[in-house]
C-alpha cells in the first residue's frame, strides 16, 4: 500500500523522510562550504565557483517549475538571465547602483517579458512551444548585441557589485555568497510551497491531462501563463546575481546554448523535484570545471601529448557523458538517489 | 411543463460531405435520465462533444437552463453545471483517486490562484471529495494512484469527478464501455442511486442498462433522432425496430 501510494510525480506529502533528507544535506553542504573554503587555501576560487552553482541552481529550479511540473519545455529561459543581468548593468551605468532598485526593476522586466511572450507561446503545444520560446530568446539576444551604448556584442563590465541600501557589503565574497544562498533557499522554499498549493496542483494536473482539467472547469492557459511568469521572474533574479558574480554582463548570458544548458541541468538532476534541478546545476558546472583535469589524470597510461589533447577537448567526453546519464539513469540524479528506496 | 434543462435546436455537424449530426432537436427535462442510443457511427459521441463544448456545431443552438451556450468553451459550461465523462477514460493517472476528485471540488470552491498552503491537506476539499468517492463506492481506494485502479474503478472515478463539479446535468459517454459484467453491474447500481439527485444524459450501448435506467430514450440513426419516448414505447416502435433494434436481441 505504501509502495502504491508513492508516485514519482506526487508532491511533498507522499515523499518519505529519506527524500526530505536530500535537500537538507544539500543546503547544509552549501552552508558549510565557505568554512571549508577558508581552509582550502583557494578560498576565492571555491567561493566564486559555488556562488555560480547556486545562481544557476536558482535558474534551473525556475525552469523545473514549468518544465518538471507543467511539462512546458521553454528553450528560451536564458533570456531571463540576460534580462536580470542587463537590468543590473544598464541601471548601474546610469548611476543607479542599489540592488533594492535594480532587483525590483529586473523582476518587473522579466515579468512583463514573460507575460507578453508567454501569452503567445502558450497558445502552441509541443515542438512549436519549444521553437517559439527559442525564437523569443534569440530576439532578446540580438537586441542585446545591438545595444551599442551598453557594449553591444562585447557586453559591459560593471564598475562594482550592486550596493545594498547604499552599503558596498556585496563586495565581500563571503557576504555575496550568503546572499546567494539566502536567495536559493528562499526561491526553493517558495517553489516547494507553490507546487503543493492549489495553484501547483492545477499546474500538475494540466501536465497529466489537459482535457480532464478543462472538463472539471479549469482554463489551463491562465495557470500555465502565471507559472511561466513566476518562473521567468525567478530566472531574472538569478540573472541579477550572475551579473554581480561576474561583475560583467554580455549577450552571452542569453545565448540559446545557455537555454539548452539550463534544460540539461534540469534533466540531469531529475525533472520535477526542484532540489534535483539544483543538484543538476551543481553536477553540470562542477563537471564542466573539473572534467579537463579528471581526464588528464585518468589518462595516465597515455602519452603526455594525447593526455593534453584529451584535456583540451574535454567536451567530447562531456557531451556523451550527459547523454549516457539521461539515457540510462531515468529520473536523472534524483532518480539514482531514489532507487535504493524502491528496491 | 417545466422548462427543459437542456435543449438542442436543429444542431448540425458535418465533416465535408459526411453529416454526423443532422438537424438534431432534443430536450432533456430536469430530473430525468435521458438515454441516447443508436448503432455504431450514429453520431452519439459527436453529439455529446457538441453538448459539452469540445466541438462547435456548424449550425443550430444548444440551450442550457434556458441560456444559449452554443459558443461557450467547455470550462465555462462546466462552471454552469454541465459535467461530462469520457468514452475513453480520462483521469489524472499520477494523482490519487482522492486528489482527482478533490481537484474537481477545488474548481468549484474559491480561487485556485492560491500559491501557499498545502492543497492536499485542505479539509474543505478532501471532505466533499471523499463523499463523492463514497457515493460511487470507491472510498476504500481513495489513496491509490488513479493510474493503478482497475478499468471499472476508473469508470467509477470518472463518475465521482463528474459529481464533484456539482453538476445540474451529467453527460455520460458510454460509462459501461469496456467493463466486465460485475463492474458494469456496479456502475449501473451507482447510476440508479444518482438518478434521483440530478439530471443525466446517458449514451450507452448496453441495452439492458439503458432500458432499466432510462426515463426516456432517444434513438439516433445516421445523425438523426428518429424517436424519443419512454423505454417501453421505444422498444415497440416499428420504425426503431426496423432501423436499429431489429438486428438485436431485445429483452
Automatic annotation (TrEMBL), chain A:
One of its GO terms (molecular function) is branched-chain amino acid transmembrane transporter activity. The lineage of its organism: Bacteria, Pseudomonadati, Pseudomonadota, Alphaproteobacteria, Hyphomicrobiales. This is Branched-chain amino acid ABC transporter permease. Keywords: Cell membrane, Membrane, Transmembrane, Transmembrane helix. InterPro entries: ABC_transp_permease, LivM-like. It comes from the Bacteria. Pfam families: BPD_transp_2. The chain crosses the membrane at residues 21-39, 45-67, 74-93, 99-120, 127-150, 175-195, 262-287, 317-337. PANTHER family: ABC TRANSPORTER ATP-BINDING PROTEIN, HIGH-AFFINITY BRANCHED-CHAIN AMINO ACID TRANSPORT SYSTEM PERMEASE. It comes from Microvirga aerilata. One of its GO terms (cellular component) is plasma membrane. It is a multi-pass membrane protein. It is found in: Cell membrane.
TrEMBL record, chain B:
This is ABC transporter ATP-binding protein. Keywords: ATP-binding, Nucleotide-binding, Transport. One of its GO terms (cellular component) is plasma membrane. InterPro entries: AAA+_ATPase, ABC_AA/LPS_Transport, ABC_transporter-like_ATP-bd, BCA_ABC_TP_C, P-loop_NTPase. GO terms for molecular function: ATP binding; ATP hydrolysis activity. The keyword Nucleotide-binding applies. The keyword ATP-binding applies. Residues 6-247 form the ABC transporter domain.
Amino acid at each position: 500500500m505504501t509502495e502504491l501510494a508513492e508516485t514519482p510525480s506526487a508532491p511533498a506529502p507522499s515523499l518519505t523522510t529519506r527524500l526530505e533528507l536530500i535537500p537538507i544535506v544539500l543546503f547544509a553542504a552549501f552552508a558549510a562550504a565557505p568554512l571549508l573554503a577558508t581552509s582550502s587555501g583557494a578560498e576565492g576560487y571555491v567561493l566564486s565557483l559555488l556562488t555560480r552553482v547556486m545562481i544557476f541552481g536558482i535558474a534551473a529550479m525556475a525552469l523545473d517549475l514549468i518544465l518538471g511540473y507543467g511539462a512546458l519545455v521553454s528553450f528560451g529561459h536564458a533570456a531571463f538571465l540576460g534580462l536580470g543581468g542587463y537590468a543590473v548593468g544598464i541601471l548601474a551605468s546610469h548611476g543607479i547602483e542599489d540592488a533594492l532598485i535594480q532587483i525590483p526593476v529586473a523582476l518587473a522586466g522579466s515579468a512583463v517579458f514573460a507575460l507578453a511572450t508567454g501569452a503567445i507561446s502558450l497558445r502552441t503545444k509541443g515542438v512549436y512551444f519549444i521553437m517559439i520560446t527559442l525564437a523569443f530568446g534569440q530576439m532578446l539576444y540580438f537586441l542585446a548585441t545591438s545595444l551599442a551604448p551598453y557594449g553591444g556584442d562585447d557586453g559591459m563590465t560593471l564598475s562594482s557589485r550592486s550596493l545594498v541600501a547604499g552599503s558596498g557589503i556585496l563586495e565581500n565574497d563571503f557576504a555575496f555568497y550568503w546572499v546567494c544562498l539566502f536567495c536559493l533557499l528562499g526561491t526553493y522554499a517558495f517553489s516547494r510551497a507553490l507546487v503543493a498549493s492549489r495553484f501547483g496542483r492545477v499546474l500538475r494536473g494540466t501536465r497529466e491531462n489537459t482535457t480532464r482539467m478543462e472538463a472539471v472547469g479549469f482554463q489551463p492557459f491562465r495557470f500555465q501563463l502565471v507559472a511561466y511568469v513566476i518562473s521567468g521572474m525567478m530566472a531574472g533574479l538569478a540573472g541579477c546575481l550572475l551579473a554581480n558574480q561576474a561583475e560583467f554582463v554580455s549577450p552571452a548570458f542569453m545565448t540559446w546554448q545557455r537555454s539548452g544548458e539550463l534544460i540539461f541541468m534540469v534533466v540531469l538532476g531529475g525533472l520535477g523535484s526542484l532540489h534535483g534541478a539544483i543538484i543538476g546545476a551543481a553536477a553540470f558546472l562542477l563537471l564542466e570545471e573539473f572534467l579537463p583535469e579528471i581526464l588528464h589524470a585518468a589518462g595516465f597510461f597515455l602519452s603526455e601529448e594525447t593526455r593534453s589533447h584529451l584535456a583540451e577537448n574535454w567536451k567530447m567526453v562531456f557531451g556523451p557523458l550527459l547523454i549516457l546519464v539521461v539515457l540510462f539513469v531515468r529520473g536523472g540524479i534524483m532518480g539514482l538517489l531514489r532507487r535504493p528506496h524502491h528496491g | 411543463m417545466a422548462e427543459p434543462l437542456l435543449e438542442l435546436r436543429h444542431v448540425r455537424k458535418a465533416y465535408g460531405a459526411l453529416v454526423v449530426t443532422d438537424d438534431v432537436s432534443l430536450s432533456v427535462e430536469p430530473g430525468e435520465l435521458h438515454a441516447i442510443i443508436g448503432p455504431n457511427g450514429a453520431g452519439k459521441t459527436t453529439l455529446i462533444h457538441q453538448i459539452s463544448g469540445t466541438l462547435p456545431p456548424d449550425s443550430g443552438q444548444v440551450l442550457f437552463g434556458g441560456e444559449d451556450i452554443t459558443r461557450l468553451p467547455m470550462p465555462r459550461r462546466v462552471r454552469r453545471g454541465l459535467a461530462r465523462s469520457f468514452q475513453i477514460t480520462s483521469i489524472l493517472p499520477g494523482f490519487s483517486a482522492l486528489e482527482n476528485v478533490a481537484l474537481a471540488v477545488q474548481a468549484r470552491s474559491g480561487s485556485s490562484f492560491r500559491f501557499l498552503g498545502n492543497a492536499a491537506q485542505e479539509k474543505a476539499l478532501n471532505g466533499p471529495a471523499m463523499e463523492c468517492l463514497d457515493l460511487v463506492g470507491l472510498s476504500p481506494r481513495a489513496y491509490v494512484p488513479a493510474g493503478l485502479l482497475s478499468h471499472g474503478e476508473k469508470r467509477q472515478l470518472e463518475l465521482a469527478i463528474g459529481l464533484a463539479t456539482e453538476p445540474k446535468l451529467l453527460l455520460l459517454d458510454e460509462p459501461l464501455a469496456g467493463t466486465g459484467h460485475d463492474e458494469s453491474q456496479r456502475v449501473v447500481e451507482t447510476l440508479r442511486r444518482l438518478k434521483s439527485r440530478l439530471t443525466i444524459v446517458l449514451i450507452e450501448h448496453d441495452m439492458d442498462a439503458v432500458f432499466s435506467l432510462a426515463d426516456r430514450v432517444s434513438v439516433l440513426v445516421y445523425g438523426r433522432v428518429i424517436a424519443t419516448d419512454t423505454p417501453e414505447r421505444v422498444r415497440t416502435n416499428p420504425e426503431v425496430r426496423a432501423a436499429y433494434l431489429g438486428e438485436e436481441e431485445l429483452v
